[in-house]
Specification:
Layout (H helix, E strand, L loop, with lengths): L3 E5 L5 H14 L7 E5 L2 H4 L4 E4 L4 H10 L3 H5 L4 E5 L1 H6 L2 E2 L12 E4 L9 E6 L9 E6 L3 E5 L4 E6 L2 E7 L2 E4 L10 H9 L8
Parallel strand pairs: 1-2, 1-3, 3-4, 4-12, 5-6
Antiparallel strand pairs: 6-9, 7-8, 10-11, 11-12
This protein binds glutamine (GLN).
Length: 201
Amino acid sequence: MDAKIGVLALQGNVSEHIDAFLLALERMGHGSSSEVFEVRSPADLTDCHAFAIPGGESTTISRLIDKNGLYEPIRSFNGGIFATCAGMVLLANTVDDPRIHPLGLIEMAVDRNAFGRQRESFEADLAVEGLQGDPFHAVFIRAPVVTSVGTGVRVLARVDQGIVALEHGKHVAFSFHPELGDDTRLHERFLQKLGITRQKK
Ligand code: GLN
């Protein structure tokens, strides 16, 4: 299957997500048959198999989702969602900041700036459940953590402060930024679960 992947392009690190998905697809042998493009309107979401919600400023992205009429279309999107950092905040059903209008697509509670000002960014090698090979080198930038999850949510990685990677059905959410660096294992795993398989060369 040729993949059509949309990246929410309202604010935040959009181009890094596009590049990471293009690299993952190339490594999976998809070359030019698949597409990765920016999503700004409901029409852009039609026909996407997968949709990424990038990191950035979750309050701003939340406001722009509402303003662009994307709230309900994202809620009823039936492909897989790959959410990082601010994206993770937006997918939750409970967020510790009333300015956010959470999408409620994953039953989880999120603490928006869990690491506080003292520790704005850091890197850690994480054991991610089900990921083959070396630990994943994770970059955290003003990262959220998940403080509780509902049934059906599979926790993939934790740090002392809480859960930092999880999956629920077709969706995955990360506190850190798998789109930075060139390790595409998490992207490839996400795509494979959606039926976008490695092509024979
Ligand atoms: N904690 C930030 C927020 O909620 C997200 C930071 C990020 O995406 N790098 O807006």
